[in-house]
Amino acid sequence: MFSFLASEIAIDLGTANTLIYVKGKGVVLSEPSVVVVNKETGKLEAVGAEAKEMLGRTPGRIIAVRPLKDGVIADFDLTEEMLTYFIKRAYRRGLWVRPRVVIAIPSGITQVEKRAVRDAALKAKASEVYLVEEPMAAAIGAGLPVDEPTGSLIVDVGGGTTEVASISLGGIVSSTSIRVAGNEMDEAIINYIKKKYNLLIGEVTAERVKIELGSAYPFEEEGRLEIKGRDLLEGIPKTVTVSDGEIRAALSETVNAIIQAVKHTLEQTPPELAADFVDRGIILSGGGSLLKNFDKRLREETGLPVFYAEKPLEAVVLGTGRLLEDQALLKRIAVN
After folding, report:
1. What is residue 266's three-state secondary structure?
2. Domain residues of the chain, as ranges?
3. In the CATH hierarchy, which top-level class contains the domain 141-180+257-312?
4. Contact present, 187 and 206 (Cβ < 8 Å)
5. Residue 290 DSSP class
6. Which of 166, 245, 253, 310 is most deeply buried (CB count within 10 A of its CB)?
7. How many whole angstroms separate alpha carbon 282 and alpha carbon 295?
8. What is the pLDDT along the chain (336 residues), one digit of tens a residue?
């Protein structure tokens, strides 16, 4: 009876998106980590993609919230409710199921933050919870030979954190975790537009500008984009046109912080492993790494080859999912 009710699932609990992998089925859910709450009743009105569409558009009685910030839980109760909702959707056998869960976490979080993730999963009806570090999960998901005595360098740029790690023999040799990633890029665009044009834009608009016009290295041809927002001086709707050069300038501080994290990890890596990177290069994963020409800029700054994981957005959850198939490796790399 227990074996019928038990299940094994892997979760990439991200600041921007949550992905769930069910053993034997693959990735079954990919939704924004957003919830909409009724302030009067305290109940959830929407979760995931439906909730994200409401960001910046809600009336006074309801609010759209991201329960995770910078890769860690900012609101425990909402994270628990969001996880419960996603697990039910991903695994459709009802409330009797208590799945065994593997969750990817940023490598730089504290013991208190780890406990919050574990407790949220247990309250969301998990029977057992294993935590693995995101860069290790991303490396496994990217197909890197993490168990071999050769060096692999993974750079995972998510929504809330950037994880950089050199990996060999099933362990992380050196790593850097910074709370600078895709969300900070959005905030940088909002602040730049506000300062230069006295125009207030929302999070959804900033993300669209980042995807369509953002870059880490100049384009061959200039790009321009119309954006709409509210004039801070007159309080009325207004449209301005921005260039890719302006957005690149707005993102420069964030991009530089990520590149410095990569360089810091390289400096901490033993020379024998660092020599492997000359041939194997740097592997990129995570939504933030898809910023246009980011690979080109990183190649120029480090002098190393740069490649993308086959599925950058799913690398972490795919790696976490593969650990469900290899219990020995899971127990070896799971963190307390």
Report:
1. helix
2. 2-136+316-333, 141-180+257-312, 182-250
3. alpha beta
4. yes
5. G
6. 166
7. 9
8. 334 445 799 999 999 999 999 998 999 999 999 999 998 888 889 999 999 998 888 888 899 999 999 888 999 999 999 999 998 888 765 545 688 899 999 988 899 999 999 999 999 888 999 999 999 999 999 999 998 999 999 999 999 999 999 999 989 999 999 999 999 999 999 999 999 999 999 999 999 999 999 999 999 899 999 999 999 999 999 999 999 999 999 999 999 999 999 999 999 999 999 999 999 999 999 999 999 999 999 999 999 999 999 999 999 999 999 999 998 999 999 997
Residue type, 312: P
CATH architecture of 182-250: Alpha-Beta Complex (3.90)
Alpha-carbon separation of residue 174 from 12, 100, 151, 317 (angstroms) = 22, 29, 11, 22
| Spatial CA neighbour of 16 closest among 62, 54, 68 | 68
In angstroms, the Cα distances linking 82 to 26, 42, 110, 241 are: 20, 13, 22, 37
Residue 101 corresponds to which tokens in the numbers above?
Answer: 């869960």
Per CATH, 2-136+316-333 and 141-180+257-312 having the same topology is answered yes
Query: 2-136+316-333, which class in CATH?
Result: alpha beta
Cα separation, 298 vs 189, in Å, equals 21
Per the CB < 8 A criterion, the answer to whether 7 and 321 are in contact is no
On whether the pTM is more than 0.90, the answer is: yes
